[in-house]
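Exercise 3.2. Students should predict the tertiary structure of the chain below and write it as structure tokens, then compare their answer with the key that follows.

Predict this chain's 3D structure.
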Amino acid sequence: MRKTDRFPVQGSNALWQLYQTIPFAKVFWNTVVILIARYLPFLSMKRWLYRTCLRMEIGEKTAVAFMVMLDLLYPEKIRIGKNTIIGYNTTILTHEYLIDEYRLGEVVIGDHVMIGANTTILPGVTIGDHAMVGAGSVVTKDVPPYALVAGNPARVVRERKLESKGI
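Answer key:
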């Protein structure tokens, strides 16, 4: 089950009330930083931007590939461990704006995780250490450590065993 906080709204749909819940200047700043980082070919500079300008937690040697789209509204709710790969054109969301409510949830991605290209990760999801997410997957619930998941919605394909190489 995803871990999200729910906030009901009255009147028009929640997205129409966006700037009553988050300042426009923050959204604008986040958008500029994320758009620059999406096209930046230097992994260390990209990590620096995320850490410094968006207050994200990103571990050492983590690679966020070209065109990865991070949540524009609450990127600070994304935590990525060390030595992890986030594949091309992946989307990581920490919010959902619905008709009668909006939801916020942290996304926690562990250490030594591999996320395939074109994956979507929904708010409130935790991906365990050493997990692998197949390309094109939609992650709608927590992924256990060492699991290989794939599909829409992502389902456990197999559980990997602890490697004898000290991983």
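Discussion points: The radius of gyration is 16 Å. Helices lie at 18-21, 24-39, 43-54.
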